[in-house]
Amino acid sequence: MAEVEPHEGEQDLEKKIEETRQRFNNELLQDSTEKYDPRDVERLQTDDSLVEGYLTWRIYNVDDALKMIDESLHWRKEYGVNDINESTIPRWMFETGAVYLHGYDKEGNKLFWFKVKLHVKDSKTVIDKKKYVAFWLERYAKKEPGMPLTVVFDMTDSGLSNVDMEFVKYIINCFKVYYPKFLSKMIIVDMPWILNAAWKIVKSWLGPEAISKLRFASKSEVQTYIGPEYLPPHMGGTDSFKYSYPPLPDDDFQTPICDNGPIVSDDDRESKEGDLDVKDALESSFTSDVVVKPKKGWMW
Asked: Which PROSITE patterns match (predicted)?
């Protein structure tokens, strides 16, 4: 039987991937051996999906993809992303519950929550906070390689004191440059009118690749994207999840997924409900308005 020839589009993609690697080696790697982590370079040379991610995000323009790869790999080396783990992040950051992974949207994408009201400007801890965001993204990339995230900015009860434009720009760069093809959509929930001007600036940073993924929603409209079972009560949902640390929440990533989140058997559902009853009893002191306050505030 004759071998089936690769589709023309697949052949073109393979050529683009090979061209990107060759140009990376010739134009970037030779003079920048100290600029990149060797582990990232090795992955770029062996993981076709990684190179494809950069190419796709840059609409298959190799020049633009190379710029993105250079910036991304330099950032990973500068922040030591490959070596970030739970023990390298200050404990109080985990305790605040300002950032965490939990639940799924209606398309089955994992939800990455940012509780904006828990973020307070503090330039002294900005590097640690950036590493903390990278910790969650890197953790998810290893747990669910190739699966996109839906970012939820919960802006309930937030105001100007919770907003820091430099940090917002960093978060955008995480999805625009450092983790290509990671972003499914970005949902901004219950944004105060006083922040309209700030978000006009934010939208200008997103660029055409990400601007189409931006969604503004009221508490009632957010159920268009996320079912009530994964929304907190203050958004009209029924999710009884209450963040606490330790341990890290939602460590049981579940696949396969369906149109409305992970597939759960009846036995698993009953077990989960029982665990939630125990969790609620143990954590009755935790509410959406009472959180462990860090000595240093989060910066947004």
From this structure: CRAL_TRIO (PS50191)
Question: Using CA atoms, how far apart are residues 62 and 20, in angstroms rounded to an integer?
Answer: 6
CA–CA distance, 58 with 52 (Å, rounded to integer): 10
Burial of 87 (C-beta count, 10 Å sphere; 0-12/13-18/19+): exposed
**Distance from C-alpha of 144 to C-alpha of 53, rounded to nearest angstrom:** 15
Q: What residue has token string 């903390």? A: 132
In angstroms and rounded to an integer, the radius of gyration of the C-alpha atoms of the chain is 21
Domain end among 58, 78, 98: 78
Residues 160 and 252 in one domain: yes
Distance CA 198, CA 285 (A): 35
Q: Quickly count helices (H) and strands (E) in the chain.
A: 9, 7
Query: What is the pLDDT averaged over residues 72-101?
Result: 94
Q: Kindly report which listed range (46-55, 74-83, 117-126, 140-149) carries the lowest average pLDDT score.
A: 117-126
Q: Span 204-227, mean pLDDT? A: 85
What is the extent of the structural domain holding 51? 9-78
Q: Rounded mean pLDDT of 277-284?
A: 36
Per-residue CA distances from 146 to 2, 18, 182 (Å): 32, 20, 8
Q: Are residues 213 and 154 in the same domain?
A: yes
Task: Quote the pTM value.
Answer: 0.77
Same domain, residue pair 154 and 40? no
Strands (E), the chain: 99-104, 110-115, 149-154, 183-189, 214-217, 257-258, 261-262
75, 178 Cβ separation under 8 angstroms: yes
